């Protein structure tokens, strides 16, 4: 249920899909997480953001605007969690994912 308070939607009772029994290949998770990060970084750069040692919204600097391989494991895990949640939700809703063996990547 969603309610409007001060014209902002507030979720009353989060109810994510039960995805406990889904098993996802870690290689798939890692490749998609890399892509998610790259897309995020590209969009930030298009908006004028650059790398900075600390996040500074006024200067548009962010320490995460680096190649995926330079992220810490904790930073990579943020993208992995997102990917697992989205792919699992799609599968739980009946979507299918196939892999074309003729291609080397996803």
What do you see in this structure?
- 39% of the residues lie in helices and 11% in strands.
- The chain has helices at 26-46, 73-92; strands spanning 2-5, 8-11, 50-51, 61-62.
- Strand 1 (2-5) and strand 2 form a beta hairpin.
- Helix 1 (26-46) packs across helix 2 (73-92).
- It starts with a strand and ends in a 14-residue tail after the last helix.
- The mean pLDDT is 84.
List keywords for this structure.
alpha+beta, 39% helix, 106 residues
Radius of gyration: 17 Å
Order of helices and strands: EEHEEH
Task: Work out the strand percent.
Answer: 5-15%
Instruction: List low-pLDDT spans.
Output: none
Shape: globular
Count the beta strands.
Answer: 4
The end-to-end span amounts to 36 Å
Q: Largest sheet at a glance?
A: 2 strands, antiparallel
Give the strand order, joined by hyphens, for the main sheet. Answer: 1-2
Q: Helix amount, in percent? A: 25-40%
How many helices? The count is: 2
Find the structural class using helix and strand composition: alpha+beta
Question: Please, what is the average pLDDT?
Answer: 84
Brief overview:
This protein is α+β, with helices and mostly antiparallel strands.
What topology emerges from the helices and strands here?
Elements: E1 2-5, E2 8-11, H1 26-46, E3 50-51, E4 61-62, H2 73-92
